[in-house]
Amino acid sequence: MNYLEFEKPLAEIEGKAEELRAMARANREMDVEKEAAALDRKAETLLKDLYKGLTPWQKCQVARHPDRPHCKDYIDALFSEFTLLAGDRNFADDHAVMGGLARFNDAPVMVIGHEKGNDTKTRIQRNFGMARPEGYRKAIRLMDLAQRFRLPVVTLIDTPGAYPGKGAEERGQAEAIATSTAKCLEIGVPLVSVIIGEGGSGGAVAFATANRIAMLEHSVYSVISPEGCASILWKDAEKMREAAEALRLTAQDLQKLGVIDRIIKEPLGGAQRGRTETIEAVGKAIEAMLKDLAGKKPDALVRDRRQKFLDMGTKGLAA
């Protein structure tokens, strides 16, 4: 278990319980279950207290937790007959973006998402989920394919933001993001998005300009990271806690503002402590959102999507 900074007291209690059980395994005559169970109860109470009132900065930490389910985990669990479609037919294949044809509840769909990787090797291969221009151009190609064959599009968002490197800028990063966002707005098929971790800046919007947007309870969605915001406003990245408060990047704030449509509840302690339950909950949310859009004509879907973004931010401003 990887523990976050604010979970250190919890780590001590759970560590002691595991230590007792390890001693008992080494010495069969020891009976420590009563003491270990007491520590388990104490840990559960502390876990509830910690997650009852997470600050925006703590939610950022949970959203970035390395043990959270990632895009590939959701695709493997929720979609059948997934066929990976690679490359932008122009420059290269971007491994930070994965997408392809699949079946969801036995119906054909196009699924696209950011993949961060789950160990050092795959994180480097996936560029930590930060897409380059070819990743967005691949997504544009897949959305065109979905439009041609009248397939709903499901996008899974989990990125700190688009890759800001020199090569990406030389190959037209800003144009690729803008074109991907525009493509989301113009396709006449249902488009639903789920923010499963971080929704960072235009790198997230390029996939999340959807008819319906859901967020996991402890995910975040913002125009800039708290560290980046703090560096610009206060010239001090250590002010990230204040920046996180000001950005209103939590699912709860964004639902009030009308930026997202639904919040998907996470297990106690975050998605990383209940991966299977989280993936099942996301599957139910995708099913509900697609059902809500079923039967709508292409023009109605485009109007619905455009109006959603025109109205965005007009709700909850007084709060």
Write the layout of secondary structure elements.
Layout: H1 8-26, H2 33-52, H3 56-63, H4 71-78, E1 80-84, E2 97-104, E3 107-114, H5 120-125, H6 133-148, E4 153-159, H7 166-170, H8 173-186, E5 191-200, H9 201-208, E6 212-216, E7 220-222, H10 226-233, H11 240-247, H12 251-256, E8 262-264, H13 275-293, H14 298-311
Parallel strand pairs: 3-4, 4-5, 5-6, 5-7, 6-8
Antiparallel strand pairs: 1-2, 2-3
Helix pairs in contact: 1-2, 4-13, 6-8, 8-9, 10-11
Helix content: 40-55%
Radius of gyration computed on alpha carbons: 21 Å
Number of strands: 8
Q: What does the overall shape look like?
A: globular
> How large is the share of residues in beta strands?
15-25%
Our count of helices gives 14
Termini separation (Å)? Answer: 38 Å
Q: Unreliable runs, pLDDT <50, ≥5 residues?
A: none
- Main sheet summary: 8 strands, mixed
Structural class: alpha/beta
Order of helices and strands: HHHHEEEHHEHHEHEEHHHEHH
Arithmetic mean pLDDT: 92
Short description:
By secondary structure, this protein is an alpha/beta fold.
Describe this structure in words.
The protein is an alpha/beta fold and 319 residues long. 50% of the residues lie in helices and 15% in strands. It is built from 14 helices and eight strands. It has helices at 8-26, 33-52, 56-63, 71-78, 120-125, 133-148, 166-170, 173-186, 201-208, 226-233, 240-247, 251-256, 275-293, 298-311; strands spanning 80-84, 97-104, 107-114, 153-159, 191-200, 212-216, 220-222, 262-264. Strands 1, 2, 3, 4, 5, 6, 7 and 8 form an eight-stranded mixed β-sheet that branches. α10 (226-233) packs across α11 (240-247). The chain is globular.
